[in-house]
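Handout, section B. The chain below has 191 residues.
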Amino acid sequence: MISRVDSAAATRRDLLAAAAELLDQGGPEAVTLREVGARAGLSRGAPYRHFADKESLLTEIAAAAWDRIGDAVRGLRVDPERPAEDKLREALTGLIAVGRRQPHLYRLMFTTPAGDPSVLIRAAERSQDEFLAIVTELTGAADAYRFGALLMTGVHGIIGMELSGHLTVEKWRISAEELVDTLIGLLGNRG
């Protein structure tokens, strides 16, 4: 027998999954609480029992994405067999992959929510702390924040240019992945 708590948690997961699908298909505008309920096979009013409003639902989706990225980066970080440079490359190209596969989600992850941003901030900070731990392996603690910020803003710019169609191999004669290698190469040339 399923308890009410388990049932509520399952319903919440179904609603989040339905909302994530709608987001992927049409962006934040496509996500309405009524459509989320219908897509999840529930009543159109079901989401209102789990989320205060659309913004809180979207914030939970973005936070969950940051949590997944944080888990992946942590997995890279604790792998004793991989060189730090390879860990860093995979962490950065993993973020690029999210931008390519789920551009609406990627943009949402970097949007300040209208409501309470605390859950999103905590998830993003955890992910970024894991990333900084990898950068620290390459730069030392004194330079980790400076180079971590450079790497993240560089990759964010790469993704933004790619999504807007302004970064193409035909135009710039370099791929996003090659740009990541260039950014990582800067770590060895710091002074």
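Note. The longest helix spans residues 54-77. Compare this with the example in section A.
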